[in-house]
């Protein structure tokens, strides 16, 4: 019997400070609320912050797995809403400079936990480093988080261009974060697609907007997720709407010919 496929979603954005980690955390919890078994990977390996955002203590991290001291399942910690978190280290330069073999080993290590997971959310680092590119390329879906700042649009375009040109990534889903109105979110998406449509052969899909909401700031100060502590806030409502859309995306069914998370399941399903 073929093992069930796992939805793997990379949350990225090029520029730092656009709220990628907040989107990753709240999307993960909102998906768990509708019954999905979710694992959240903190893929900012040298400057980890998911554990700090959620106020959870991680005794072991990805560094321990790479050193061979334990398995991936041993380092996972429980977060709000039943999600599980794969924590990374903070202030560890070596982890931000993994070689291709180490990346491959880490990605393949996830196969061991595949029977107990429906969705893997990858919170990437900022920028266009090899580490970011490796994790994004190994996912089946890419969410690009943008804000209404010229540098955010420019950096998002640069990342999309690189992923498309050098890594063959074709489809990108866009979330407009910290917008003042739904109209602002649409305008923001149009700014980005005006450039991508002109210069790139990519499929861009607008997933939705998360409003500017003081509840998010208050939740961060409390080291909590806004969907958890302010469930009726505008931002929490937006994250739940986003989760419903994500839950409707098609599951992967065939391998794409390069290293992917849970690729063994796709090979098995394709041959079933």
Helix and strand content put the structural class at alpha/beta
Can you tell me the residue ranges where pLDDT is under 50 for at least 5 consecutive residues? none
**Percent helix range:** 40-55%
Radius of gyration: 17 Å
CATH homologous superfamily designation: P-loop containing nucleotide triphosphate hydrolases
Judging by the overall fold, what is the CATH architecture?
3-Layer(aba) Sandwich
Number of strands: 8
Mean of residue pLDDT? 90
Strands of the widest sheet, in order across it, are 3-4-2-5-1-6-7-8
Which term fits the overall shape? globular
Which fold does the CATH topology refer to? Answer: Rossmann fold
The H-and-E topology, N to C, reads as EHEHHHEEHEHEHEHEHHHH
* Count of distinct structural domains: 1
Strand content: 15-25%
- Main sheet specs: 8 strands, mixed
GO biological process, one term: negative regulation of cell division
GO molecular function, one term: ATP hydrolysis activity
Protein name: Cobyrinic acid a,c-diamide synthase
Organism: Bacterioplanes sanyensis
């Amino acid at each position: 019997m073929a093992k069930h496929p796992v939805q793997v979603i990379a949350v990225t954005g090029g520029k730092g400070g656009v709220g990628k980690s907040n989107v990753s955390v709240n999307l993960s919890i909102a998906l768990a609320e509708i019954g999905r078994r979710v694992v959240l990977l903190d893929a900012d390996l040298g400057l980890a912050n998911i554990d700090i955002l959620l106020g959870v203590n991680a005794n072991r991290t990805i560094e321990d797995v790479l050193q061979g001291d334990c398995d991936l399942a041993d380092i996972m910690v429980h977060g709000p809403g039943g999600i599980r978190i794969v924590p990374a280290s903070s202030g560890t330069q070596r982890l931000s400079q993994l070689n291709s073999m180490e990346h491959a080993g880490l990605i393949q290590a996830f196969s061991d936990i595949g029977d107990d997971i429906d969705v893997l959310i990858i919170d990437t680092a900022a920028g266009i480093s090899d580490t970011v590119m490796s994790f994004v390329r190994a996912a089946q879906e890419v969410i690009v988080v943008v804000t209404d700042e010229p540098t955010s649009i420019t950096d998002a375009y640069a990342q999309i261009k690189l992923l498309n040109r050098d890594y063959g990534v074709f489809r990108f889903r866009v979330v407009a974060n910290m917008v003042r109105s739904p109209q602002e979110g649409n305008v923001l998406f149009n700014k980005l697609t005006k450039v991508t449509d002109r210069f790139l052969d990519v499929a861009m899909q607008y997933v939705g907007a998360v409003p500017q909401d003081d509840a998010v700031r208050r939740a961060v100060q409390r080291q909590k997720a806004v969907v958890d502590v302010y469930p009726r806030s505008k931002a929490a409502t937006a994250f739940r709407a986003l989760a419903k859309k994500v839950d409707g995306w098609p599951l992967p069914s065939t391998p794409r010919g390069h290293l992917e998370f849970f690729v063994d399941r796709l090979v098995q399903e394709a041959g079933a």
